[in-house]
Specification:
Strand content: 5-15%
Helix content: 55-70%
Radius of gyration: 40 Å
Number of helices: 13
Largest sheet: 5 strands, mixed
Structural class: alpha+beta
Number of strands: 5
Length: 452
């Protein structure tokens, strides 16, 4: 089944993405060009640039080096050409050039100008192993190279001074290049993290908006089902009664027609509110009161239902909780009217003392030895699913099923503290499953559909 969200982003989400792009464009502009691709290897263009730099370095540096060890300059030129393409070869060539200069006791100072860029490449590398290799190599070069060159020069008392001077120069070249590359890598990583975090926040808002839209659709669908199912159940029962009583008892037929008219007017008002919600219009919060509840019970009694209704406490709470309580009561009674045994009384108990609790019990007809899971003796299932979803949205739970020859509906909406989570029903895994199936699975399904 094609997801309802497999369509372009809604306008609010598009505006958020556009805002992120406008605000983050300077970050993209200021971000350094990626030194490597995501897998740590350079692009073809970068490899070609490195090869050109290595060749130019050889042409510029080698002529003055013919009197010294020219092999060191060649090795460093090759290291520059391979500094991003083959990092192990670059490290080996650079170390080889340094060892060669220590062995011949001849510093190739023009050629050594390649070392800052080589250490920069190691400090900038995206793989931690090569960054650590650059740090260790810089430390070893600073600690061993200058003292060895000074000792081999037989400088006597000037050995310490010469070692410090050469060591300072080596530290600036090695650690300076490596730290510069490391700082650049950290800046690029920080900018990427900030951009990823903001894009992830926009995606999370999109998923939240999609989930909220799905919850609102489920609620409106449940409202539509409750209104239509309740209306037609009452209308069908009253119309049958009026038809049978039309000749023998015109007064009863007239009373039945009056109930049909009242039910139709109430339904038209509810449908106008639902249509307004579908159009995105604001509807006033007008929670049902005791009068509307008495009208509901009166219509059920007029349809031939024997009701035994009791209530503890006074209705209170948010408009959503009160509307949810009214819808749950109406759907439970409608199922009992459509599928229950009207020869036996329907017991209704509501408790408003601590949140809201509903208990509805009605008989199951003999012909419904195995009632379908949808309702009181064989409903289609939409009503029960809608009731469970409605209770879950309000922070509660609902269970329904056959029990000792009766159909029992139990609902509970706890009175939770402000900002606190709604407690579940202790020791009731079925209630927990209903809440999860009505809430968590919908969130996961919506998130999966939106990502697709």
């Amino acid at each position: 089944m094609r997801s309802a969200f497999a369509r372009p982003l809604p306008r609010p989400v598009r505006s958020r993405v556009s805002w992120v792009w406008r605000t983050q464009a300077p970050l993209f502009a200021r971000a350094p060009v990626d030194f490597y691709e995501s897998d740590g290897r350079p692009t073809r263009r970068q490899a070609a640039v490195d090869a050109a730099v290595g060749l130019l370095y050889l042409l510029v540096v080698l002529p003055p080096q013919w009197e010294g060890p020219p092999v060191a300059g060649v090795l460093l030129g090759l290291a520059l050409a391979l500094r991003r393409l083959l990092v192990p070869a670059m490290v080996a060539l650079a170390v080889g050039a340094g060892v060669l200069q220590l062995a011949t006791q001849a510093l190739a100072l023009p050629a050594d100008l390649a070392y800052p860029l080589l250490f920069y490449s190691l400090g900038r590398h995206p793989v931690r192993q090569w960054r650590r290799t650059g740090l260790v190599t810089a430390a070893v070069a600073t600690a061993i190279g200058p003292p060895w060159m000074a000792w081999q020069g037989h400088l006597g008392l000037q050995w310490v001074t010469t070692s410090l001077i050469l060591g300072s120069f080596t530290a600036v070249v090695a650690f300076g290049g490596w730290l510069t590359g490391l700082v650049r890598w950290q800046n690029a990583a920080s900018i990427r993290d900030r951009i990823d975090a903001r894009l992830a926040a926009v995606e999370q808002r999109r998923l939240n908006d999609a989930y909220a839209e799905q919850v609102e659709r489920a609620r409106i669908a449940a409202d539509m089902h409750d209104v239509v199912a309740h209306t037609w159940a009452v209308v069908a029962a009253q119309a049958d009664g009026a038809r049978y009583a039309l000749r023998d008892s015109p007064e009863d037929a007239e009373r039945a027609l009056g109930v049909i008219a009242d039910t139709a007017r109430t339904t038209m008002s509810d449908l106008r509110r639902i249509v307004a919600e579908l159009r995105g219009q604001q509807t006033p919060d007008d929670p049902p009161d005791r009068e509307r509840e008495e009208q509901l019970l009166a219509r059920m009694r007029a349809s031939g239902m024997r009701l035994e209704s009791t209530t503890d406490g006074e209705p209170h709470g948010s408009p959503m909780v009160m509307l949810t309580a009214h819808r749950l009561l109406g759907e439970a009674l409608t199922n009992a009217l459509k599928h229950g045994d009207l020869g036996r009384p329907v017991v209704v108990h509501q408790d408003w003392r601590d949140g809201y609790a509903l208990h509805v019990r009605n008989g199951i007809p003999v012909r419904s030895a195995r009632p379908a899971p949808g309702g009181a003796g064989g409903a289609s299932g939409h009503g029960r699913i809608g009731m469970a979803q409605r209770a879950a949205i309000a922070g509660g739970w609902l269970t329904s099923g056959a029990r000792e020859g009766e159909w029992v509906v139990e609902a509970r909406i706890p009175q939770r503290p402000s900002g606190g989570p709604a407690p579940g029903r202790p020791g009731d895994p079925a209630g927990a499953r209903d809440r999860q199936s009505a809430g968590t699975e919908h969130r996961e399904e919506v998130s999966h559909d939106v990502r697709e």
